[in-house]
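Following up on my earlier thread - several people asked me to post the actual chain instead of describing it. Fair enough. Here it is, all 228 residues.
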Amino acid sequence: MQTFIIILFLVSLFSIVYLRWLRPWQLRWGATDQEVEQVMLGDEVVDNPTFNATRGITIHANPENIWPWLVQIRINRAGWYSYDCLDNLSRPSAEQILPEFQNLKIGDLVPLSPDGTQGFWVKELQPHRQMLWWDQKGKASWLWVLKPVDETHTRLITRVRVRYTWFSPDIIFNLLIEFADIIMMRKCMLGIQRRAEKLAKKQWQNHSESFLSKTSTDKITPIINLGL
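Reply from S.P.:
Thanks for posting it. Predicted structure:
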């Protein structure tokens, strides 16, 4: 009896802490008030969602440097840039753009299961702007948005909406989303940030070197001509 009371107390304590502080934090990690409140593409797909998470991160890169990392994301492809041992069969997520996985289109399946048969389908696709996935049942949707801040910074925003089915085997998946999604999603978004910023920095350096090389050539040419 005493053990039961202790367990009940701990469960009650966790529930209070989770619902009061942890859940509100994880449902809007990195997002601004405006982003959380904003009506976005795909909100109509899932009515009265039990889980409605909007997360955001600022990336020092333009959308063109971020988009390729998004369209190649998935298991058995580029991975999820997260915890590979858990979501990519221990295969390292890609550290470069994979041209063979850049042709994602509406109607394609984005697999979540190792056999590639279960996942989300692409419902909307606006290159370098936003991409919407859904489960084709109206119970779950996943939106990716790229919103330029200025010429060199972009907001990456994701919105996951799920309506739980309490008396269905799907509730196991729902509970995984409830308690583990923030762990994977945060790591994923930070992974995209690191990769996109590395790509943007490399392109900027190449552009700078090309510009300096051209400038040096332009300065040397008149000197040579003058000598002649």
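The chain has a mean pLDDT of 91. That should answer part of your original question.
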